[in-house]
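A quick aside before the break. I want you to see a complete sequence-to-structure record at least once, exactly as it would be stored in a machine-readable document. Don't worry about memorizing anything.
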Amino acid sequence: METEQHEMYEYARKRIKQKKKLYFHFVMLFLGSIFLFIVNKWMNIGEPINWYIWVITAWFFIFILHFIKVFITDSFMNKNWEREQVNRLMTMQEKKIEQLKNEVENKKTI
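That is the input. The structure line, written in tokens, reads:
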């Protein structure tokens, strides 16, 4: 397998693993929410305060952050984005080095 194909394969494998973990997180959130509701309502733990709502809200917020990371952040900040950024920075450094060389040469001629 060529290097580029291998990179594409590894990226696809990584994305599938990320999505699988996100889906598992969602299932755990759903089942955990049901469990917390049952514990609070039918077993009368923590009455009269509905503490489970705060726990579920915090857990849902963490799930939203996980979702943003998988589907928004990692979808555009991938290997191609990294390569483009490295190339852009290298080009800027090369221009700066060339500019400094020109300045040094100009000072020598003066």
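Two observations worth writing down. Residues 20 and 43 are 33 Å apart (CA to CA). Helices lie at 3-42, 51-76, 79-109. We'll return to this after the break.
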